[in-house]
Amino acid sequence: MADEKKDVSRRDFLKTAGVATGTLVGGGVIGGLIGYNMKGGGTKTAGDSASRSGGRKDEGAGSPNGRMFFTNDHDFSVLSEATERIFPKDDLGPGAKDLGVPYFIDHQLAGAYGNNEKEYMQGPFLAGQATQGYQSRLRRKEIFVQGIRKMDDEAKKRFDKSFLDIEGDQMDEVITAFQKDEVEMEGVAAGFFFRLLRSATLEGAYSDPMYGGNRGMEGWKMKGFPGHQMSYADKVDSKEFQKISPESLGGQH
Amino acid sequence: MAKTLEKVDVVTVGVGWTGGIIAAECAKAGLKVVGIERGRERGTADYQRVHDEYRYAVRYELMQDLSKETVTFRNKRDQQALPMRTMGSFLLGEGLGGSGTHWNGHTWRFLPYDFEIKSMTDKKYGKDKLGPEYLLRDWGVTYDELEPYYDKLEYLMGISGDGKNPFQGKRSREYPTGPMKKTPILERYEKATKDLGYNPFMMPSANLSEAYTNPDGKTINACQYCGFCERFGCEYGAKTSPEITVIPTAKETGNYDIKFHSNVVEVLHEGGKATGVRYINWLSGEEYIQPAEVVVLTSYVMNNAKLLMVSGIGEMYDPDTGKGTLGKNYCYQILPGATGFFDEQFNTFMGAGSLGMTIDDFNGDNFDHSDLDFIHGGSLSITQTGSRPIETNPVPPDTPAWGAEFKKASIENYTRSLSIGAQGSSMPHRDNYLTLDKKYKDAYGVPLLQLTYNFTDQDRAMHKYITERAVEIMDKMGAKQTVGRNPLTDYDIVPYQTTHNTGGTILGTDPSDSVVNKWHQHWDAENLFVVGAGNFSHNGGYNPTGTVGAFAYRCAEGIIKYSKEGGSLV
Questions:
Q1: Residue environment code for B157-183, b if the CB has 16+ CB neighbours within 10 A, otherwise e
Q2: Of the candidates A185, B24, B278, B385, which lies 20 to 30 Å from A167 by C-alpha distance?
Q3: pLDDT at residue number B263
Q4: Where do the record's region annotations for Disordered lie (chain A) (predicted)?
């Protein structure tokens, strides 16, 4: 019963706040409010809504954050939830959504990565052995859109609900079905999409924040990676473990 | 219609370590040299934003644009070869400096044993130690013959080392600079291997322990141990690279010019001699012919072989008959090793490409193989190259690949796990070879190179044996859990392994079983030289660049001699 109630509230939240984050926040009205609240320690609502929108906390007019690739809010929300299951928030620190991973993936899909610019994409495209690697005619942007929609379809098939409305362990079941190649996709194996999604999630969590993920360098802080440092020449032979405050390339001009 | 340019003395195809060394030596000797480089010009000033794992290590900023050219691959002859669509097992370079820009800098001399492996193996273990399907052979050049060139290379590069390897070949001089710093991680390996009765020493490093000015007057700075080396260029000029050494040396003579964005598609030849190369400038789309007295193939293993094949120079190897030489003896590198998980934290994110300690007790024939079903072995090292967070997610076996448990374990062990690994030798096999693909083409309409490769029984046995030694060492280092590398199955082109591909254009003393002679001169065209790891008859138990560089110096000497005297150098 408790679960059911949670589902309802989630759905209601989506209908209202979910839409709000897609429109009003982008327009700057609530965005300004959230920013203000966050500075003052934040409120529960602000935090939740930022979390639901893929970790977008710092919107506002003129913000560099936004979606370049996903035009459909539902698709983007499914992506966000899936990345969060892969790299969840826990007592160590933020998960994929709070780190901005969905935005990182969105930006990457809009560019060279999504378009397989440096890859050999000439045909014929023939099925091969696993040892021969990626042989799909599809580009990553096409694989992601198809994969995310298939994830939602798979949730509906198994649980009669959208991926956004199922429980965490049910999401895991759907993701695992992709991992194990149990879902049919066109032109690419589900397992390949899963591996792309997993890699992209880790890339978003740990790449320099200038790419849109690893917000506040929180991914690096959790892991103990100091980012961009000019030199460890005076520390490398130290017997002690060195806790070093990270630096981003984004701080360099 | 191709535009024909003014004839030059020497044209090199590709400008990395081999093209750079040959340019510097020939230009200093007064020859007019042109380098044709398909990538762009680049140097230290281009690497100021290099501490970016995602761009450089994950998305391969400095590597070859596969949309223009790749290779096709299959494990065995009855499979359909398919294109390597994305980088994986090895990372092909592109641009000024080639892979010499983004290498780690491990700079080894192969063992004397490597060059005479066939006769030494036969003598000690009998002729049947390996089956006839293994194309084991003496190289046609000995360690002693190569020693002066290794020495020259080490002083060009300023290599940092302690010279304490008891198994190394005779050296005419000590390393030009002292060893890199010995960190707690290295000390732990040193103690464990000593306790086990082995002989640890500091890895010879092209990331320098101190600033060094080489005999050409080029300065390489002291390494800052920033942890961004392999797959990155050095923003500090502290990793010896062609762009900061041989290329400026060649340019200062006034005898050297480089054509960038220019992809050679054919070696032109007539009457048993090369006449020049044909290339396409992919910015303008214009086609050019660069005539030359001497043509030198100085690109990577893959393209040196491919250019000979598409130009119809030499006889292609046929695995059915064993006839032909071009494309045979393709080898790789076998990578045994172990990972240990610890409670204590290490500064794993600090490091340098060649910051490491090694034992050679299980390399070459430094240990008895009488009761073993393989020959050779590998150098076994711990390296502290700087672990970066996207690609370093060590987790104990049975940890899920994602989710809460994965996150916790990968974060926990990022600074609490250490790995040791071997650069295992790779022996040539009848069924492992390079040829031209019949189906797939590059952006210029030229066939792709086709690779047929799989691991062999020799590889599997050696991998297992050295992995067991690595596990023993890691246990001795005090790991609470040690995990050896999985046994070899089929070679898989997807996960990164190593960019140590060798063979295909092997060197030798007889035209019936080699492509070039001991001066790297092509048997069928005396003014065509081919140099690189393609000349290796097998891959030794070390990173190949030291031997590639020594070959380049030797080849340069051959070219200069040929330019004066002409004819065959043997």
A1: bbbbbbeebebbbeeeeebbbebbbbb
A2: A185
A3: 98
A4: 42-67
- Mutation target for B interface from A116, A120, A134, A201: give the one with most B CBs within 10 A: A120
Chains A, B: CB contacts under 8 A, how many?
A: 171
Q: Are residues A198 and A243 in the same domain?
A: yes
Identity at B168, one-letter amino acid code: Q
Question: Closest Cα partner for B311 from B338, B281, B273?
Answer: B273
Measure in Å the smallest separation between the Cα of A253 and chain B Cα atoms: 10
Based on the fold, state whether residues A62 and A77 are members of the same structural domain.
Answer: no
H or E stretch covering B34: strand B33-36
- A79 and A39 in one domain? no
Q: Distance of CA B143 to CAs B138, B140, B163, B169, Å?
A: 11, 10, 17, 7
Confidence band of A60 (pLDDT split at 50, 70, 90): low
* B-chain residues near A113 (CB < 8 A): 59
| pLDDT for the residue A251 | 72
Is residue B500 annotated as part of the catalytic site, yes or no? yes
Residues in A closer than 8 angstroms to B73, CB to CB, are 132
Residues A140 and A185 in one domain: yes
- Do residues A113 and A140 make contact, with C-beta atoms less than 8 angstroms apart? yes
* Residues A12, A108 share a domain: no
* Nearest residue of B to residue A85, measured between CA atoms: B403
Domains and CATH numbers, chain B: 3-565 (3.50.50.60)
- Domain region containing A7: 1-66
The verdict on A23 and A107 lying in the same domain is no
How much is the pTM?
A: 0.92
Residues of chain B under the 50 pLDDT cut: none
ipTM of the complex: 0.96
pLDDT digits (tens, 9 = 90+) for B121-147: 999 999 999 999 999 999 999 999 999
Tally the domains of chain A: 2
Chain A nearest C-alpha distance from B246 (Å): 26
Chain B: residue whose CA lies nearest to A111? B59
- Is A174 in the same domain as A79? yes
Same domain, A105 and A160: yes
